[in-house]
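USER:
Working in pairs, take the chain set out below, taking as long as you need, and write a paragraph about the fold.
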Amino acid sequence: MWTEKYRPNTLDSVINQSNTVRTIKNFLKNPGTMPHLMFSGPPGTGKTTVAICVARTLFGGRWRDFTLELNASDERGINMVRERIKSFSRHATGLLGDVPFGLVILDESDQMTSQAQTALRRIMETSSRTSRFILICNYASKIIEPIQSRCAIFRFSYLKPDDMRYSLQMIAENESITLVGEGINAIIDFSEGDMRKAINILQSASVLKGVIDLEIVLNILGMAKPIEVREMLVSALKGDFSKSRTILYNLMIRRGISGVDIIRQIHSEIFNLDLPDTLIMDLSNIIAEYDFRIIEGANEDIQLSALLAQFCKIGIGLGA
C-alpha cells in the first residue's frame, strides 16, 4: 500500500505539522523528561506517523521491541487495559542509552470506555518510571480530564493544499505516473486535508490509466463533474425543472452516483455561483433539510427532485 510505502520514517520528513514536530524534537533531546503525549485531530493528518517516528527516534531499529502498539477501537474495554497495557508498563524499559522506559502507542483512544480510561489513568500514574504513553484520538474532548491533565496535548490540523500537492507529485514521479493539474486539484479537493485518503485515491486512479486527469479521478470517486452540477443548479434557478431533473437522473441512474454525494456537491457548488449572500443562505437551508431527509432514509430520487423543485420556485420568484 502506498500509504505505508510513503509513510515518513523521521520527524524531519513529516509535512505541515511544523510546530508540533519542533516541540516534540525538544522533548526528545532529553528523553528521560518527556511527558505522556496526546495527539488529537482529524484522520490522515499524521498523528500515528508522528508517534511511530518518536519510537524510531528513541529506540532506533529495535523500536518494535520496546513499543506496544494497540488500537483501542478493536479492544476498548477494561480487560485490555488491565491485561495488556498493565503487563507491558510494569516491565517495560528501553535500556537503550538515555531512554529508561518503554513506549505505549494507543491509537483511537477516544473509543475506549469510561471504565477503561479510568483504569488507564491509574496505570499512567504508577508506571511513569518504566513507560510513556502516546494517546492518539480524533476528539480530545472524549478523553477524561484526569488523563488529559497528565499529557502534553498536540492538536493536528488538516494538511495545507500546497503540502499535499508536493507529496502527491513526489509519489507520482516515483511511480512513473503523469498527474495532470486538474487531476491533482480534484484529489486535493475531495480528500479535504486527509493525506491518507489522497494517497489512496492516487493509487486507485493509477490502476486505470498512466495519465491521471480530472475525469479519471471523478470516476474513481464516483462523483459528478462540477460543470454538470453547476448546469443542473443554473437550470433549476432559471425555473427549468425538466432540464435540471434530466441532468439529475443522468447522474443518478446512468452514472450511478449516490444521492448523498450529489447533494454534497450541490452544497459545494452553490458557493461558486454568482449569487447574493441572502439567496445562498436560503439555498443552504433547503439543502440542509433535504440532506437530513436522505440520511434518515427517505428516497433519494424523490427528495432530490423535490430539492430542485424548491430551487425552481425560488428562481421563478426572483424572475430568473
Notes: The mean pLDDT is 84. The two ends are 51 Å apart (CA to CA). The chain has three domains: 2-155, 161-221, 226-317.
